[in-house]
Amino acid sequence: MKGLKVLKLEFNVYGQYDLGFDKLFDEAERITTLSSLLFTSEQFIMISKIEWKDEADIESIRRSIIIDDIIEVSREEKTSMCIVIGHLPPIVSELISHVIKEFKCFFEFPIVNVKGKMSIPLVGTKENLKNLLEHLKELNVEFTVLSLTNYFIKGKDMLSSLTPAQYACLEMAFELGFFDIPKKADARKLASQKGISHSAFLTHIRKAERKIFDELFG
Fold first, then answer.
1. Stated pTM of the model
2. Which of 40, 57, 98, 178 shows the greatest Cβ crowding within 10 Å of its Cβ?
3. Is the dihedral of CA 109, 113, 119, 120 positive or negative?
4. In the chain, where do the E strands start and end?
């Protein structure tokens, strides 16, 4: 969407609203909300990645009063992928509604939580985001601006950030099996077909990958 920016903010979190938020990090090192299946003023259903300090302890997440249920979908070493079901207290719902309605901004993912801190991407026009920051300062909210970048619809608009050469090389590599396991195409042969050097071909691929990964995970 042209004209939209994504502003990543980091907030200091001190167990607000008696939600038992700090207790989530007795066992968890980091909780990353990857996407939302449902988000209303009454209930949320999130897909979250939980990185544990030691052994996985799903029951410890239920210590927060906002969590109604948590379902572990998969586990690999010290990382669990979970469906988290819960609800927001009125004061938090009102705050979210205010950000959306008053400042015409919306929340993006991933939202990353560690003990004492939460980073949230917010999307809006540059002017609306500026007004939101001024409002937060007036409320004496503690935050740090981590980044301000162009907003792309994940999986589509992010490709518009690639140069023509990067896009062409990436498309060719994908279609001819360079990313398959095992590889069906050699980078040197692809570069030769493209009429460029091996190093130039790999540079285009790496830069394209970096731009896409920055949009997905940055």
1. 0.69
2. 178
3. positive
4. 4-12, 28-39, 44-52, 67-76, 79-86, 106-107, 111-114, 117-125, 143-150
Percent of the chain at pLDDT exceeding 70? 89
Claim to verify: residue 12 and residue 108 sit in the same structural domain: yes
CA 2 to chain centre: 20
Closest CA to 212 of 171, 174, 172, 160: 160
Mean pLDDT in residue range 55-62: 90
Q: List the domain range (segments joined by +) for residue 58.
A: 4-150
Q: Which of 96, 115, 150 is the last residue of a domain?
A: 150
Tell me which H or E stretch contains 103: helix 90-103
Count of domains observed in the chain: 2
Residues 30 and 86 in one domain: yes
